[in-house]
Amino acid sequence: MGNKISAEEAKSKRLSLRLRRSRKHAEQEIKLLLLGAGESGKSTIFKQMRLLYGEGYSDSDRARLRPFLIGNVIDGALVALSAGDALGIELTDDSAKEAAKVIRGLDNTRSLTEDVASAITTLWDDEDFKRIYKERSTFQIQDTWSELVEKLRDFPEWGGAEWVPSMEDVILARVRTTGVVDEEFIVKDVKVRMLDVGGQRNERRKWIHCFENVTSVIFVASLSEYDQVLFEDATQNRLKESLSLFKETINSRWFKSSAIILFLNKVDLLEEKLVKRGIPLNESGLFPGAPSGKDLDMAIEWYTDEFEAQRSNPRKQQIFTHVTCATDTEQVDTVMRLTSEHVLRVNLNAANMLR
Ligand SMILES: Nc1nc2c(ncn2[C@@H]2O[C@H](COP(=O)(O)OP(=O)(O)OP(=O)(O)O)[C@@H](O)[C@H]2O)c(=O)[nH]1
Ligand SMILES: [Mg+2]
Predict the structure, then answer these.
(1) Distance of CA 67 from the midpoint of ligand 1 (Å)
(2) Beta-bridge mates of residue 137
(3) In which residues is GTP bound (predicted)?
(4) Where are the domains of the chain?
(5) Could you tell me whether strands 319-323 and 259-265 are parallel, antiparallel, or unpaired per DSSP bridges?
(6) How many CA atoms lie within 13 A of 334 on its CB side?
(7) Residues 74, 209: contact at Cβ < 8 Å?
(8) Does 199 carry a binding-site annotation?
(9) Is 272 a catalytic residue?
(10) Which residues, 6+ apart, have CB-to-CB distance to 155 below 8 Å?
(11) Does 24 have pLDDT greater than 80?
């Protein structure tokens, strides 16, 4: 390769230089904290921020995600196969049975060979496996698994030894956050310090270390998990957990003077689940007040009301809500520009009131 650098690397270098220059000129500074339950999409927003307003992802940054993405595709296949056993759905086709044997027989190194890649795509195309996948709300498989498996059809260009993940792969990868990740970005001349935390229950005790001087909390809630249970507790519905976590967060003394932003995320998956697959909002039986139809706008309105109802002092607290698809870079760009403008305005008003 010599001294040649890729287009993505050159772009990343240019961005980094621009970032350093603009940091010097940024006049205002805000601290944004991403909170929300596990898998709601916090890190996906954070990755988009790094891509849009930060140092981006160099070839080596993206290459580091290879084992995670490979783990993602293999784990999904294993989880679905076990779910098939639990659900009593048998694979009847001989090539699917053979593929299942290959996946189940993987050792700890779990390398993505030609055989493994082809076994996963064989399963993905199998009719019985599709029946298992249809029941995916009842087991823990990552939302972007099917998109990654579609890419695997291009093995070895995707997933092989020479492969470097693309920016799209970076966004689709699922890496559970542990601890706190902290970075600075420049959005329209505003220095934004953003903190991303892990959302699963055992991660939340670390949150308090980030609470000092927060200008704004961005609470990320998934719109598509109304019929799913938590990864860490199979007795708890994901939406119930998200609502009670939101309640605890916005009514906490730490955020009395912080702007509260709510991202109702994964709208693409809500559309797929509610509108295309016709799974009603009250599928779990826990939300009898939810609209029963397939109307997307009505569903979003209901979600907004449910979250707003968690405020203990609605007259004093405004929530700024956005419907988002965190995997869509352009949409996150628009939403984040609006969000930082809003946060600055709220901050300015609060400062004026103190005068
Ligand atoms: N289709 C779709 N997938 C999304 C969206 N937002 C996030 N995802 C995917 O959902 C998975 C989980 O997202 P993360 O950003 O890792 O979730 P998180 O909130 O950081 O999770 P923790 O770190 O465990 O708290 C990833 O595979 C993302 O690619 C979305 O709007 N649409
Ligand atoms: Mg995360």
Answers:
(1) 18
(2) none
(3) 39-44, 196-200, 265-268, 326
(4) 7-57+177-354, 66-164
(5) parallel
(6) 8
(7) no
(8) yes
(9) no
(10) 112, 114, 117, 118, 121
(11) no
Find, among 120, 131, 109, the residue nearest to 153 by Cα.
Answer: 120
The residue behind tokens 């000092």 is: 212
3-state helix, strand, coil in the chain (%, to 5): 50, 15, 35
**Predicted confidence band at 94 (pLDDT cuts at 50, 70, 90)?**
very high
For the question of an ipTM over 0.90, the answer is yes
| Closest among 265, 252, 215 to 37, alpha carbons compared | 265
Distance 175 CA to ligand 2 centre (A): 7
Catalytic choice (121, 174, 215, 241): 174
The predicted model gives 311-334 an average pLDDT of 93
Number of residues that make up the chain: 355
- Gap between the Cα atoms of 173 and 116, Å rounded: 19
Query: Quick one: tokens of 332?
Result: 């996150």
Q: Say what the pLDDT of residue 3 is.
A: 47
Give tens-digit pLDDT for 255-295. 988 889 999 999 999 999 999 999 999 999 999 999 999 99
Q: Name the residue with the closest Cα to ligand 1, atom 23.
A: 177
| Confidence at residue 314, expressed as pLDDT on a 0 to 100 scale | 83
C-beta separation of 124 from 117 below 8 A: no
Specify the pLDDT at position 1: 39
Question: Looking at the predicted structure, is the pLDDT value of residue 351 above 70?
Answer: no
Amino acid at 349: N
66-164, superfamily in CATH? GI Alpha 1, domain 2-like (1.10.400.10)
pLDDT digits (tens, 9 = 90+) for 154-164: 999 999 999 99
Q: Which CATH superfamily is domain 7-57+177-354 in?
A: P-loop containing nucleotide triphosphate hydrolases (3.40.50.300)
Cα-only R_g, the chain: 22
